[in-house]
Amino acid sequence: MSVEFIGMIGTREASELHDPTVSLTGGSIDLAYVRKFAKVHEDGGFDRVLVGYSSTGPDGFNVVSYVAAATERLKFLLAHRPGFVAPTLAARKLATLDHFSNGRIAVHIITGGSDAEQQRDGDWLDHDTRYRRTDEYLDIVRRVWTSEEPFDYEGEFYQLKQAFSEVKPLQQPHVPIYFGGASGAAVDVGAKHSNVYAFWGEPIAAIKQRIAEVKAAAPPGKDLRFSVSLRPILGETEAKAWEKAHYILSRINESRVKAGIQLSAGASFRPQAVGSSRLLDFAKEREIHDKRLWTPIAAATGARGNTTALVGTPEQVAESLSLFCHSRQRKSRNQGELGK
Taking every annotated instance into account, which residue ranges of this chain make up the domain Luciferase-like (predicted)? Predict the structure, then answer.
């Protein structure tokens, strides 16, 4: 069983500890910070880093191209939202970047769980319709990557005549596809197209159930791998790790008070994204699941992304990660500035 550790880089220093109004995947660009952040991951032995996506942030293709030139071994997971460039163009862009990065990229497909996010870029399709579009989009992208002859395509969202790309991915049979999404519509599309299905950090029993659901929806015989996003909060002793965790939470709450944001998502708050909603439900059930899966940061921030943590000594957190791996996962992901 292989295990891959994935970090995350942004384009400027940002943290919920200091300013809860800034996005970890958006904002301005600090070139020196980007280079340093990437090198820290490479020198620290991370296998890959996620370059995130938001409707107000820098373009991930350019970020990956820049960081690939500043590193040698580190691989990249480029978040990409279908629907805003043609799938034929996306396929060529990714294949080109695969060559210029010497085969170090993968693409993370995020269809989008927030109508407001989508509408900033002019997308007014509803949630399930967006996933039907993603299905067509990935059909076309994969075919462009692998087809040796021009092809036509007639779908609900895309109609193509003699589509073809002279540039094919360096990686064969194509650039690895990661996929995120917790809804039923997401599972059907992701199980069909992805090489790696990504989850946020939920209790082990829930992860086992979700793995079973994705595998059941996948084509017969497909070899799927799985990723879990968690924030490691480490200490020399377990007591020091929990002290650090509560300090981090207090800093987040203080920064939210200063920004005029309520401390907790509250019972009436319900995000559109199904994954975020699930994390809030687990946080409402209890603060700690499976001995050290800690949920209060998810509750305090509205579960905007990877917001659950594993708390303990390095050895204890490693033991907890091994339990996720033994949930028949092939891939484990650790992300989050708060865990460093």
Answer: 10-321
Q: Among candidates 71, 81, 79, which has minimal Cα distance to 34?
A: 71
Find the CATH number of the domain harbouring 136. 3.20.20.30
Evaluate whether 79 touches 108 at the Cβ level (below 8 Å).
yes
Handedness of CA 202, 333, 10, 273 (dihedral sign): negative
Smallest CA-to-CA distance from 228 within 2, 4, 42 is with: 4
**Residue range of the domain that includes 60:** 6-231+314-339
Question: Is residue 324's pLDDT more than 90?
Answer: no
What are the residue ranges of helices labelled H in the chain? 31-43, 60-70, 87-100, 115-120, 127-146, 184-193, 204-217, 238-258, 274-285, 296-301, 314-325
**For residue 168, what are its two tokens?**
């094919």
Asked if residue 33 is part of any domain, the answer here is yes
Q: Which helix (H) or strand (E) holds 86?
A: none
Alpha-carbon distances, residue 105 vs 24, 47, 205, 278 (angstroms): 21, 11, 31, 29
> What pLDDT, in 10s, does the model give residues 325-338?
776 544 444 444 33
Q: How far apart are CA 292 and CA 309, in angstroms?
A: 8
Using one digit for the tens of pLDDT, what is the confidence trace for 284-304? 999 999 999 999 999 998 898
